[in-house]
Amino acid sequence: MKKEDLMELKDTGIPFSEQKQKDPSEEIFHSCYISGRKRTNELNIEERSEMLQVRGISFNLEEVNMIIMHVKDVLVNRYRDEGSKERIVCFSFNRDKGTSEKKCGKNRAERSKDSFCAPCRSELIVSGLFTDKNGKPILKENEEGENSPVFIFIRGKGVKYFPVSNYLNSLYLMETDFITDVTTSDDEDLERKILNNKKVVTNITMGKGETQHGEKDVFSFSIGKKLPKEVTLKIMELSKKHLNDFVEKMNWSGGSKDDEKDEEDGKKEEITYGKEDDDFLKDFDFEIIK
Prior knowledge:
Blueprint: E1 29-34, E2 39-40, E3 46-47, E4 52-54, E5 58-61, E6 64-80, E7 86-92, H1 108-111, E8 121-131, E9 139-141, E10 147-149, E11 151-156, H2 161-173, H3 185-194, E12 200-211, E13 214-226, H4 229-241, H5 243-250, H6 280-283
Parallel strand pairs: 1-11
Antiparallel strand pairs: 1-4, 2-3, 4-5, 6-7, 6-8, 6-12, 8-11, 9-10, 12-13
């Protein structure tokens, strides 16, 4: 039989192909999360409870650092099934219309008027370049044996939402020298929204948040080292270059939810940051970070 004999039936075959899940280390954006319990991960490494983990890259950390690239506020309607596993019934990446085809309310009060939309909540996704506390990029070896940058992200949802939101607000209010030509209040607003978060290293540790069920682990943020203008501009270039990658990873409208594994789930991996140098720009390899 020739393959041409099958073509008449091509539209009535099995409507999907084999879906191979990526190895966590092969992802472009790696989830940073707080492990809720001790477990052995996909790489057969033990993740200790109440430690920061960078999925597929680095494990059992007390601190994670990044330079922020993208921030996205999405809407997610979740519920827990009988096995206490979270399920998503509606998702909106642009906060306009959800995967349920329902139009999104502009705020929580408006959404609460619809019984289906009432449980929907805002979640913040923040991605960035994985660095040490001084802003030196942490590199991984790619398939070609070359060093490449590592991009990570955090998800501020539930009790984790407000620590993320409050930190981003503090970055917006942070007084810094302007990089763009700021002549109007709109110009200033745009720079504060887009560039302020790229002017510093963001230090991430663990804190506690109060809920009706007691204390829960949350991310705790602080503003770290201030970065030279050249680095901020390079991060902006990176953000533009990887915008489509970010959208592809975080926009679940197409049904990909692989990184829901990052929540509530440590042998410690050693990381090499490269040579110490007082001149930060010498260590920020502009050829590698591209």
